[in-house]
Amino acid sequence: MKKILSIIMIAAIMLAAVTGCAGTNANEEQKPVENESKGPQDQKTDENKKIKIGIIQPIEHPSLNQIRECIIAGIEEQGLKDVVEITYKDAQGDPSNINTIISQFIGDKMDIIVPIGTGTAQSAAAATKDIPVIFAAASYPLEAGLVKDLNRPEANVTGVSDAIDVKQIFDLAFELTPEAKTYGFLYNSGEVNSVAAIDKAKEYLKEKGVAYTETTITNSSELLQAAQSLTGKADAIFTPTDNTVASAMPVLASEAMKAGIPVYTGADSMVNDGGFATVGVDYTVLGRQVADMVRRVIDGVQISEIPVETLKEYEKIVNISVAEKIGVEISEDLLKGFKVVK
To answer: CA dist 69 to 50, 59, 85, 132, 136, Å?
Structure first.
C-alpha cells in the first residue's frame, strides 16, 4: 500500500512540473507583447483591406484636374495600385460642399486625405487632427496657417506648395510688353493664396515704381463685369493661381483680347485658356511629388518627418496666338527660351 501511495505522489509531482512549462500561473499577470508601430500599409495588410485615400478639389479646371490625374498616376507608379482605394470628390465651386465632403471622408474612415488647393487644405486641416492630410498646390502654407514650420510640420499636415515667383512673372512682363505702365490685378479676395501673391506683386511693383490698380471678385459669375472694368484702367492684367478666375479664364481672356491687352497668369493652364504668358509651375511634377509623400505616409513615416516641398523649377510659357491677336511681336531668338502654346 505504501508503494502504491509513493507511486501516486511521484506521478502527481511530475504532472505538476510538466504543466508548469506549458502555461503560466493563473494568478500571474499576463504581460502584453510589445509590437513595433506599423504604418497604414502594414495595418491594412493585416486586416486584408485596402488603404483608403480621399482626394478633393474645389472646382473643375485644367490645372487642378492635371494635379489630380498626376497624383493618381504617381501613386500607381509607386506600385500601390492594388494596395489603395482612391475616392475623388469635386466641390463644384461651392465652399460648403468642401466641408461636407471632408466630413464624409472622416466618416468613411479615410486613411489619408489629399486636398487640392489652399481652401480645401484649410478645411481638411481644421476638420481632423488624426488623419494625415497631404495637400497639393497650397501656394503659401505658412500664411494659410497649415503649418508653422515648413521643414518640420508639427501636426498632421504636410504637402507640396505651388507658390509662384511673382518677380519672375513681372520681369517677363517688363521684357515682353515694356510699354505697359499700369498693371491691373484681378483675383478672388477670399482665396488666401491669391491675396498672398497679390501682396508680393504690389510690393515688387512699388519697388520698381510701376503703377497698379485692382479689382476683386467673390465668384466666377462676377468675372465678366470685373474684366470689363479692369480693361479700361490697365495696360496689362495679372491674375495669380486663383481658382475662381481659372475656372472661367476664357471670359477674362476674351475681354482682354478685345481691349488688346495681355493677361499674365500664375499657371500654365491659364495661358492655355487664353492668357498671354507666365513663368509657371509644372503641375505634372507637383502631382508626382504629392504621390511620393502619400507613399511615405503609407510606409509609416511620420508627418513631422516629411517637410513641406516647393517646386523650384519654373517654365516660361507664352501663347503665340494671343500674342498675334493683341499685337505683341516676339522675336524668334526670344521664343527659343519659351514653351510655346497656341
So the answer is: 20, 14, 15, 20, 12
Rounded to whole angstroms, the Cα distance separating 159 from 294 reads 9
CATH class of 166-280+314-341: alpha beta
The DSSP symbol for 116 reads B
pLDDT number for residue 178: 97
Are 40-163+283-310 and 166-280+314-341 equal in CATH topology?
yes
Each domain of the chain, given as residue ranges in start order, spans 40-163+283-310, 166-280+314-341
Identity at 118, one-letter amino acid code: T
For residue 274, is it left (φ>0), alpha (ψ between -120 and 50) or beta?
left
DSSP 290-305: HHHHHHHHHTT--GGG
Question: In this predicted structure, what is the pLDDT of residue 8?
Answer: 37
Where b means 16+ CB within 10 Å and e means fewer, 17-31 reads eeeeeeeeeeeeeee
Cα dihedral across residues 153, 154, 158, 161: positive or negative? negative
160 and 308 in contact (C-beta within 8 Å)?
yes
pLDDT of 125 above 80: yes
Name every residue whose Cβ is closer than 8 Å to that of residue 169 and which is 6 or more positions away in sequence: 238, 264, 266, 278, 279
CATH no. of 40-163+283-310: 3.40.50.2300
